[in-house]
Amino acid sequence: KQWYQRRVRGDSKRVPIRNLDDFSQKQMLMSYYKRTEETQPTAPGEDGIQRGTPEFYTQELRKEFEGESSTVKVLESLRVSLQGNTIRWLKSFGAEDGLQLLLHWLAKSQDREYQLVTYECVKCLKVFMNNKYGLMAMM
Predict the structure, then answer these.
(1) Is the distance from CB of 110 to CB of 118 less than 8 angstroms?
(2) How far apart, in Å, are the Cα atoms of 77 and each of 16, 64, 127?
(3) CB of 41 closer than 8 Å to CB of 49
(4) Helices 115-128 and 87-95 sit at what angle, rounded to 10 degrees?
(5) Within 10 A of 131 (CB to CB), how many other CB atoms are there?
(6) Cα distance between residue 98 and residue 137, in whole Å
(7) Does the model's pTM come out above 0.70?
(8) Average pLDDT for residues 100-119, to the nearest whole number?
(9) Dihedral, 16, 37, 90, 76 alpha carbons, nearest 10
């Protein structure tokens, strides 16, 4: 019953858009595509890997500990990427040993008592497990 109610609610939001003329719908799509292009990863860095890709984050997590603030910034950025990207992106991050690296940093931060790093690792893990793939990977 809840699924049906959500579906009906979602359909009621679509009706006004469906009633628009083709030109207006096309403008809305172009605006959407333009916004999504702006949020895509930026140009490759000095090492040839684009910022915002799963490879970038796994490379950053493989680096030696350079200080709590830099690690927290990487983890915060990773959490935002995990929340905002597709399941395909998440699977790619998992395939690059991203989950193992997060667990490694969680253990490492607890050994050294870096509370902010521990907190951000837990937040990243929570977002990672917020879907079927992430849950199955944790098991």
Answers:
(1) yes
(2) 36, 18, 12
(3) no
(4) 120
(5) 14
(6) 11
(7) no
(8) 88
(9) -100
Task: Map residue 63 onto helix, strand or coil.
Answer: coil
- Nearest CA among 106, 29, 44, 38 for reference residue 75: 106
* Structure tokens given for 25: 């719908």
Residue of 76 and 31 predicted with greater confidence:
76
Task: Give the whole-angstrom CA distance, residue 16 versus residue 47.
Answer: 47
Q: In terms of residues, how long is the chain?
A: 139
CB 78 within 8 A of CB 124: yes
- Is the distance from CB of 74 to CB of 120 less than 8 angstroms? no
What percentage of the chain exceeds 70 in pLDDT?
A: 80
Task: Give the span between the Cα atoms of 16 and 45, in whole angstroms.
Answer: 43
Residue-wise pLDDT tens digits, 1-10: 444 545 555 5
Residue with token string 């790093």: 117
The amino acid occupying position 126 is K
Neighbours of 134 (CB within 10 A): 21
> What's the rounded Cα separation, in Å, for the pair 93 and 72?
18
Distance CA 62, CA 84 (A): 22
